[in-house]
UniProtKB/TrEMBL annotation, chain A:
Listed EC numbers: 7.6.2.1
Binding site for Mg(2+): 404, 406, 827, 831
Any GO molecular function: ATP binding
Membrane topology, as annotated: Multi-pass membrane protein
Composition bias, Polar residues: 1111-1125
Requisite cofactors: Mg(2+)
PROSITE patterns assigned: ATPASE_E1_E2
Superkingdom in the source lineage: Eukaryota
Family from the record: Belongs to the cation transport ATPase (P-type) (TC 3.A.3) family. Type IV subfamily.
GO BP, one annotated term: phospholipid translocation
Name this protein carries in UniProt: Phospholipid-transporting ATPase
One Pfam short name: Cation_ATPase
Active site: 404 (4-aspartylphosphate intermediate)
From TrEMBL, chain B:
PANTHER family named in the record: CELL CYCLE CONTROL PROTEIN 50, CELL CYCLE CONTROL PROTEIN 50B
Principal location: membrane
Organism the protein comes from: Cirrhinus molitorella (mud carp)
Official protein name in the record: Cell cycle control protein
TM helices/strands, residue ranges: 27-53, 312-333
Cellular compartments annotated: Membrane
UniProt cross-references to InterPro entries, sorted A to Z: CDC50/LEM3_fam (IPR005045)
Keyword Transmembrane helix: yes
Alphabetical UniProt keywords: Membrane, Transmembrane, Transmembrane helix
Keyword Phosphoprotein among UniProt keywords: no
Family membership noted in the UniProt record: Belongs to the CDC50/LEM3 family.
Amino acid sequence: MLRRRLNRLCGGDEKRVDSRTIYVGHRPCPDTEAFIPSKFCDNRIVSSKYTVWNFLPKNLFEQFRRIANFYFLIIFLVQVIVDTPTSPVTSGLPLFFVITVTAIKQGYEDWLRHKADNEVNKYPVTVLEDGRSVKKESEKIKVGDVVEVVEDETFPCDLILLQSSREDGTCFVTTASLDGESNHKTHYTVPDTEKDLQALTAAIECEQPQPDLYKFVGRMHIYKPEQEPAVRSLGPENLLLKGATLKNTKKIYGVAVYSGMETKMALNYQGKSQKRSAVEKSINGFLLVYLCILISKAIVCTTLKYVWQSKEGQDEPWYNQKTQKEKDTNMYLKMFTDFLSFMVLFNFIIPVSMYVTVEMQKFLGSFFITWDKDFFDPEIQEGALVNTSDLNEELGQVEYVFTDKTGTLTQNNMEFIECCIDGFQYKHRDTRSELDGFTVTDGPVNKLQQKAGREKEELFLRALCLCHTVQVKEAGSEVLTDQVDGIDGMIHQPEEERGFIASSPDEIALVKGAMRYGFTYLGLESKSMKIRNRQNDIEEYKLLHVLNFDPVRRRMSVIVQTSLGETLLFCKGADSSIFPRVRPEEVDRIRMHVERNATEGYRTLCVAYKQLSAEEYAVADTGLREARLALQDREEKLMAMYNQVETGMSLIGATAVEDRLQEEAAETMEALQGAGMKVWVLTGDKMETAKSTCYACRLFQRGTELLELTVRTLEDGSSKREEKLLELLGDYHKKAVQDAPPVKAGVTRSWSTANQDYGFIIDGATLTLVMNPPRDADASLYRSLFLQICQNCTAVLCCRMAPLQKAQIVKMVKNSKGSPITLSIGDGANDVSMILEAHVGIGIKGKEGRQAVRNSDYAIPKLKHLKKLLLAHGHLYYVRIAHLVQYFFYKNLCFILPQFLYQFFCGYSQQPLYDAAYLTMYNICFTSMPILAYSLLEQHISIEILLDNAALYREIANNATLRWRPFLYWTVLGIFQGLLFFFGVRCLFSNPALQDNGQVFGNWSYGTIVFTVLVFTVTLKLALDTRHWTWINHFVIWGSLAFYVFFSFFWGGIIWPFLKQQRLYFVFANMLSSVSAWLVIIILILLSLLPEILLVVLRKPRGLHSRQKKPGQSNVGDNQSSQSSARPLLMRTFSDESNSVI
Amino acid sequence: MKNEGEGSERPDNTAFTQQRLPAWQPILSAGIVIPGFLIIGLAFIGIGIGLFLTSQTIQVWEMDYTGVEKDSPCVRCTIQSSQNCTCDVTFSLSELFTGPVFFYYGLSNYYQNFRKYGVSKDYYQLTGDTQYFKSPQDVCSPYKYDSQNNPIVPCGAIANSMFNDTFELYQIINGTTKKQVPLDGKGISWWTDYNIKYRNPSSVNGSFANAFEGTVKPINWPKAVYELDPVDQNNNGFLNQDFLVWMRRSALPQFRKLYRRITEGDYAAGLPAGNYSLTVHYNYPVLSFDGRKKVVFSNVSWMGGKNDFLGIAYLVVGSLCVVMSVVMLIVYAKFKFSDDDDA
């Protein structure tokens, strides 16, 4: 969609080329023969969908693409064209209403987008033109313009940084509005550009626009008179993105490379994913049933009509002769138009207003999530965020929860705990009491009491101080606290005067750890890193290369030159990525520590170094530079180079950083499990760490038997990996699936009551093996075994997962039998794929940037909020919307059924029972508001009880109130009431002299009595279902009834000049003057509601019971199941349809 | 749908936003429902008895005069194709038929609720808008113009098919003398129909008939609309009460409509016991569509005409409620209290 617009905007021809060439300041460069200014799109951002001119046609077109709207349009057209019983107004008005409401909503949203667009597009910017600064509107910027940006301004387009007011040619930028990371990022000018931009003649060659925010490859050719053109590589560090804000820098100049819709921000702008909730699927199913009912009704009536007419004198009695035209019409055509007429007559059975009500309910309902103050986190001053309101009810249906570990289960608030140098353990006990901060503690290593050599210690600490990308916060800046994505990090400690900024909290923890041991990182100044050592001397290191961290390599390195001229490479990374690259004998001494730390739930990193000889460095240097300049496959080349450089290192130590559990993580997990959800932890972390986190979160408990399927277990023994895998899968399957007690039909979700809990652990490598076994034939077998095992385990831990593998797992579960509803929760960029994959994606407003939040459906500040989001909000939303849907179908069924039955008494002539006004208003006015209020406010169980009793969540599991049985119940109820309404009044009308003055009632009185009973019954039925009567409910329910009475008086009290027939004139008032009419209305309402009241009463004991349950003795499933079997038979009737009362 | 974040603003802490509005949470507990049912049941039984007894006191005499059966007095009118056929129906009342007596005619298998039939009238004509006299609305077809293309007033199927049997009631005194029972034709249609909804056109040159110049009477009518009641101008034209009664369409194919009331003279207190003779001017054909005609004499109560249904329904529902309350009492005694012990 966006691409298409892009093509239109920018002309297609340019697309064919892989790269674009931009002339800085539009100045032609010497070696290009002809200066052809290539055409790029202008800098206008268009996020709006409509313009004033195309709004109406385009919006209407989009709305009528919805099947329901289209259906009603067809009905409307049939009414206009064919002679039908009801006027086109009856279906046209509701359709118009629905279309208008939706159009207004969409128009308003688009107006907001227009406003936002204009704000951006009309923003004044300064452009350098022929040495003068010219003020322009932002949308006038062309690619190649040199743009000036001052502090705290946002960049108007994607710029290559040419000049900065800072001496070192850097500038600082926050990308808060792009990815939410509010930390300052450093960007660099292109080296060797002229100070005088006017004299700069350069051409930039760069790739065509692409949406990845963190990727950019380009090359700049700088032409100087009398010199060979110089070539400089351009990377993301030179690119300033539109939408980012300049910080800490007075002024910069940059040349525009991507503009308007081609900027990375615009390319990243995309509509929310189209996730559809299961409720919607149910609605469509029900709709189909009702469509079948509608068509069969029409067919029955048409058939009976012709059967009936075939009898002598019935077709055309003398008092009702046909016109000549009617006589001439073809019999089959007549049948067809009759069929259409019946369709029109009964079409109200398909509730036109349901879609708009459902949409309104979702839209308004989602505000309760954003408003909830329990979701407000004082630390980040934010509450929950709702990105889509389409999935509210899905929150009440979750069966599988996939959670990330770091930042989600844990706080991602790192604290340096201990380190191990050369096999000796150093534990940081209490910084304030120790002079040098070094303490030796007990541990399993026997050489504990000795310290490692001083040299080793200092080398290790220098490595910690140098091997990172941390920035020191500018002196003089107001806050001297650690900043990680704008969140105040640790507690202030007196000796920590410095603030650090880093993209990962681990790095800050490590730098601070080193600081406690006496080595303080002072900052980076013109490519040299300064540290203060224990002797308070300043050491300086020249930073030669940074080999950035990436999740595939799982390590990072720096190459520095000491003041003595030595070249050193420091590398830190995950044990698995370091150990193969160091000498094996060193590994053994440290591995033990690493593993022990990992089991304690700490994050471990290993630190290694190597000394580079001058030759070695020269090779590495050229290699790295070349790779950086490459335009194609730069990533791959860099990766290969990194791997080449980071070899043959020697291990000097390991660190352990604690990542504390999130607040109430364990309680939340317990609640989720109690609610019948299966929690899977998907993490990239190593098994031991993850396992300990799982224990800490009580996902695994002491009694839990762990089934492990990891590289370690596979390599046990002599057999081949594949065989072992199959063997283990078979074993576990036998244990967890076959030997488990057979699940009883009634208590499907009370698996946790089974005697033995199983926990399952799998790692990434093994998962790959399971998903893509060497022989394709096994794939489905492996998968199904794996899935079955997992489904019978209380908790599953998947460690060492790549982001894509996380999504793979979610997808596998999502598509498994019964298509369970899945929920993914995560906070980092690596969770985005699984957040997008799951039915419901939840982002945590954590410390790893905002990408997860941006891609999520709901975002919450903390993990603990998940409990309320699911157990309270989700549960309520589900019950509300389920009731809304069922009620809508029900009320339309008993609305139209009498009209159908009336056909049997009027010679199948399509005579409507109700007046057109009633037909039109029924769904719009008389019965729409109470259900809307109900579906927004109902709390059939109060929020506190829902939170205390996680098991209540299970009662609505598996779409419980929207399955076919409850649907059947509602349908039967609708039919029962419809029959009652019609035949009750029919019996009354066996003598139509109902007034005490002997006068008789006609057909409109008949319809009005039925309609009055109908309106009162469906409204009171809702009143009966309402458990939570706020003043709004009172107002709306009684108000609706009063409005109906008022409207009827009003409608019948005046001769309406625009009506051709005054059919209802005084009908309602006359009806009320008849005692018999009153009596029949009362008894019919009571009789229709009687079964409902009985059900409520007979179900009551159970409801009382669960209400009385004390908070605290919560959640576990066994009392639940015993209770359900202990219930007396009588009271179990319809208990599965329980939607109104628990 | 996007609710752009509340940003850094703390959400409003109001009862509404926090879903903590004070709420009444009614629990239909046994303590309310059982006595409630009992009270409702008893009340309904009371009403039911009242209704039933009232309905029983209403006297009804009805008689099918279509003439299908061979011994029916009107049988010759069905054979005879001649107009102005009259037949006499005699009957006797054994006791006083309490007044005021309402005189209905009834039709069955007659579909006044046909859709096309129902819309076949011109409301503007009937409000006296002479503009529509010249060109009636299309819905009146095929009763819009006659064969000479003259507009019909009142047009349409309903008006055209107006019931035109007339009745005279005589009391037979001493076996021979016939004393006519006065029939009151006023007040048989809805007050609003007579006074507001239907209007006659104003007279032209002092003659009411002139207002209808250029129009013809409905095909089936023996005389024009302005001649419906030549005696009483207030009962003439569109305001003729018989016409108004007919124009209010019946709900079901079997219906009755009010014809006259017996309120005057010697019969104000009712029809005394004795023999009566009803003279029927048999004009209205129903046999072609297998219809039936009947006459009904009935008196009414506060609930209208005789209708046993309501009384019986109230009795049944009332007893049902009482039974339910008893059943519930038993169920609760058995289960609820034992449930409480568990808790």
